[in-house]
Amino acid sequence: MPIKTSGDVASPLGDKSRFVREIEEALLRGEVDLAVHSAKDLPGELPDGLAIVGAPQAGDARDALIGNAGSLDGLEEGSRVGTSSLRRRSQILAIRPDLEVADLRGNVDTRLAKLANGGYAAIVLALAGLTRLGRSDEATGVLELDDFVPAAGQGILALEARADNEVVEEVAQRLSHEATMLRLTAERAVVQALDTSCHTPVGVHTQRADAGLRIDAYVGLPDGSEWIRDRVESTKGDPAALGRALAERMIAAGAGEILRRSEAAA
After folding, report:
1. Rounded distance between C-alpha atoms, residue 149 and residue 263, angstroms
2. Has 109 been annotated as catalytic?
3. Alpha-carbon distance 266 to 255, whole Å?
4. Is a pLDDT exceeding 90 seen at residue 173?
5. How far is 73 from 63, CA to CA, in rounded Å?
6. Phi–psi pair at 32, nearest 5 degrees
7. Closest to 100 in 3D by CA, of 89, 109, 91
């Protein structure tokens, strides 16, 4: 059932729910039984009565650089880099404050066309999105996880349904990938505990480490002038608890103040 969301038409920028609102309303009305979202588009808090019931195996979580260099370090001083993401803007400027980060919107084809027309020296897109469109070969470089923290849920498709629909939940769980659900649970716990919004540059990524999980998170100002990055690891099996613990550490280190200043600057 095709549903046009507010994100497909004119809508206030920064309202993350615009990508899913109409779909969730259709779920609650019983017009559809299962929704598939880009997990990073889902707000931290779901409407009452809805739940994430599964997630197929994740794609590559990293961000891709497309342009005239294979890395941020390879770009000439003052190069213009396009992105619509405050998270990407903050991390790019934290690494290369000499670059010009310019707003870039539209679907993937539109953004690549703007790059081809010479408006930017490079642009940054999710590698998983390029891969799903069969265009990953256009990436000239990949921003590695040790340097550049992806958005929570990046590369993951989240399956959402009514919380009381046991039949749909059973079907969704057959499609679900355990390690991906662990990752999504941990990353959503971080953003929920930090109480983030689209006006706050935040990155979170979870991966297997030895016998447990490792979570990396980034919080910064949009201009990259101040930022906090932290990492936690645990062999215990509660990804949500580990995510909350990381958020608490970051808040104690000043992340809350940075988030408030980011909101004020939006």
Report:
1. 20
2. no
3. 17
4. yes
5. 15
6. -135, 160
7. 89
Q: Residue 118: which pLDDT band, with cuts at 50, 70 and 90?
A: very high
**Cross-sheet strand order for the sheet of 80-82:** 100-102, 80-82, 122-126, 63-67, 141-143
The answer to whether 137 touches 116, Cβ cutoff 8 Å, is: no
Both tokens of residue 161?
């349904």
| The one catalytic residue among 33, 41, 60, 238 | 41
Confidence tier at 142 by pLDDT (50, 70, 90): very high
Structure tokens at 235: 């062999």
CB within 8 Å of 114: residues ≥ 6 apart: 82, 104, 106, 120, 123
Residue 134 CB coordination number (10 Å): 8
Using a pLDDT cut of 70, give the percent of the chain over it. 93
37 CB neighbour count, 10 Å cutoff: 19
Three-state SS for the chain is CCCCCHHHCCCCCCCHHHHCHHHHHHHHHCCCCCEEEEHHHCCCCCCCCEEEEECCCCCCCCEEEEECCCCCCCCCCCCEEECCCHHHHHHHHHHCCCCEEECCCCCHHHHHHHHHCCCCCEEEEEHHHHHHCCCHHHCCEEECCCCCCCCCCCCCEEEEEECCCHHHHHHHHHHCCHHHHHHHHHHHHHHHHHCCCCCCCEEEEEEEECCEEEEEEEEECCCCCCEEEEEEEECCCCHHHHHHHHHHHHHHCCHHHHHHHHHHHC
pLDDT at 264 over 90: no
Identify whether the C-beta of residue 228 lies closer than 8 Å to the C-beta of residue 219. Answer: yes
Cα–Cα distances in angstroms (integers) from residue 61 to residues 55, 128, 203, 266, in the given order: 14, 6, 11, 26
Q: How big is the chain, counted in residues?
A: 266
